[in-house]
Amino acid sequence: MIRELALVDVYYLVLAIRWTIGLTVLALLGGGTIGLLIAALGASRFRALRGLAFGYVGTVQGIPLLGWLFIFYFGLSIVGYNLPPLAAATIGFSIYAGAFLGEIWRGALVAIPKTQWEAGVAIGLTYLEQLRHVIIPQAVRIAIPPTVGFMVQLIKNTSLGAVIGFVELTREGQLTTASTFQPFSVYLLVALMYFSLCYPLTRYSRILERKRRALR
Amino acid sequence: MAYTFQFRDVFAQKEAIADGIGVTLQLSAVTICLGFLLGIAVAVSLVYGRSWMRGMARVYVEVIRNTPLIVQLFLIFFGLPGVGIKLDVLPASMLALTINLGAYTAEIVRAGIESVPKSQIEAGVSLGMTKPQIFRHVVLMPALKNVYPSLSSQFVLMMLATSVVSQISAADLFHAGSIIQSRTFRDFEVYTVISLLYLCLTLLMRGGFGLCYHLIFRRR
Amino acid sequence: MPFVELKSVVKRYGDNTVLQDVNLSIEKGEIIAVIGRSGSGKSTMLRCINGLEPVQAGEVWVDGVAVHDANANLRELRARVGIVFQSFNLFPHLTVERNITLGPMIVKGVPAAEAAALARAALRKVGLEEKIGAYADELSGGQQQRVAIARSLAMAPSLMLFDEITSALDPELVGEVLLVLEEMAREGMTMLLVTHEMNFARRVAHRVVFMHQGKVWEQATAKEFFADPKTPELRSFLSAVLH
Questions:
Q1: HSE value, Cβ hemisphere, 13 Å, CA-based, for B183
Q2: Which residues 59-88 of A are in CB contact (within 8 Å) with B?
């Protein structure tokens, strides 16, 4: 039964945004944890550890996100877990985000000139104290603009959750199209909603980038 | 629950895989060529265009970069017929991918153009060169050389992103997965193999772009 | 009629008035050295002559062309006015030969073979013929600057502008560049040099101009300029730089 595109459809689309944001947050938490580990490994003095980080990032970035989603979606059911698509999506996105965030944060860490480390040693700080008081605060400042930029990527990437059945904004769009047969209007609305989520973040990341450059 | 991995069944479907790789490579090649040219044109508008041109280019770039590729694809394939434009699967895929890549390329090339020192441009102006001449002979190659790493990374990302066309049933490598899956019922193995194949493509492309850099930009 | 004439030129960057009221005329074949403190406006004045900097008031005439006119098409003039910059500004992605043939080929439409001959002749003039296939980063500062001069010479200019061309060079490389300039002067080129090289100015220039606070403060023949400075500002400047 085909029905007209009505305000209630718009309402359900807007509600679906909750899941888009939710999945993004989960991916940030999971990916952030992995990313910290990868960044630490990637910036380490030991070549073996750096190699591990490099291997992880290279492998994850060399496979399409859809691939990771499907691997975990089917892989999880093999291992006996019958979890909702949200679980597969969260794990897949976390693995994916972990690689990208790890690269960004590793880049921020190695951007701190050696002289900063030396200054820390000169005033008698231990390695961990150096990290905590000298290195990480500066690295965080460098890392914020590209991290915010990556959050925009994540929000867009959650649209692929639809493919494994997770009902976020894009999936809701597919469902709405199926019942109203108005793909043009529906997907235009969906695009508009993504835009309203992403564009402010994009602008913000640019402002941050400009502020950071001005401080130099 | 015991489960034995059966990769052999997947490997038996060599033909489907090969066909899929062919389509993925073709789509990627066309998209990269057209998207690159489109990106340069848009970048030129962003840097040198009159205000209305700059405005239009900026709108294009922001809209594409702040909406997901899959939604753009659905809009073109499912949505356009509603306003009278009916495209086949592959043309729709190429259109969506090209438009998408063009926007990302434009931003990268724009940064490259702006990274060319003003003194270089002054030298060109002082010789009596016109703006198009300066762009072609003084700005373009140094700009592309400066952003080559970003550019080639973006192209590799696009090759991976082509997997999204499987969702409108384009017969690419990822879609081959669903074909093999329906024949062998080995979901996990299928997508593991396909993912590893994408990884191989990535490594090949990265190597290829590295080689290109040496061919184009290294001194003869 | 003078070849170059600046009349009451005013140039501002925002609130900062760099050129207050510049008046200067240069005859064909003259060699003018311009000296002064940093910020006196000497480089800016030079850059106004080939239109790299627009002027807010006054007139700039070069070989009959109204450079100050916002609507003027300066392309044709610029092909006749060579300028050499402090930072050489060679094109790093092109060989020395291509750097030099680019202008003649695409601005003046000179065919490739003729342009190559022009390049060789220009390089011979500056003593760098053997470097014709090299890239800029393979050359020393002095060599790069000489290539920059050759690049301008290949356009067969009627006027050469030099913007502190030896200031960025290591001292031992300055001599080779000044030699080239002396040769050009001997051959009768009209030259305007913003420079710190006082000895060179005294020896080679016909007239020396002292710029101060955005004006032409004092000018005289080279001999008189250094032997008998009239204004106290010039006297204190000369005692500071000549020691």
A1: 14
A2: 59, 61-68, 70-71, 74-75, 77-78, 80
Segments making up each domain of chain B, as ranges? 27-173
Least CB–CB distance from A183: residue in B69, B78, B198? B78
For residue A84, give Cα distances in angstroms to A14, A89, A92, A93, B48. Answer: 22, 9, 13, 15, 51
Q: Considering the domain boundaries, does residue A135 fall inside one?
A: yes
* Measured distance CA(A183)–CA(A204) in Å, rounded: 31
Q: CA-to-CA distance for C108 and C118, rounded, in angstroms?
A: 12
* B1, B72, B199 ranked by CB distance to A59: nearest: B199
pLDDT of residue B2: 42
Residues of A in contact with B68 (CB under 8 A): 156-157, 159-160, 170, 194
Do the chains contact at C155 and B128, CB–CB below 8 Å? yes
Nearest CB to B160 within list A64, A156, A191: A64
Cβ within 8 Å, pair B122-C92: no
Q: Is the CATH code 3.40.50.300 the one for domain C4-241?
A: yes
Total structural domains in chain A?
Answer: 1
Q: For the segment A65-117, what is each residue's pLDDT rounded down to a tens digit?
A: 999 999 998 887 777 777 778 888 999 999 999 999 999 999 998 888 888 88
Give the residue-averaged pLDDT of B113-142. 95
For chain C, give every domain's residue range: 4-241
CATH H-level, domain B27-173: superfamily: MetI-like (1.10.3720.10)
**Residue A77 structure tokens:** 């059911």
pLDDT digits (tens, 9 = 90+) for C101-130: 999 999 999 999 999 999 999 999 999 999
Structural domain of A128: 7-215
Q: What is the pLDDT of residue B99?
A: 98
pTM: 0.89
CA dist., res. B169 & res. B176, Å (int): 10
> Which CATH number goes with the domain that contains A156?
1.10.3720.10
Determine contact: A180 vs chain B, CB below 8 A: no
Q: What's the pLDDT band for A1 if we cut at 50, 70, 90?
A: low
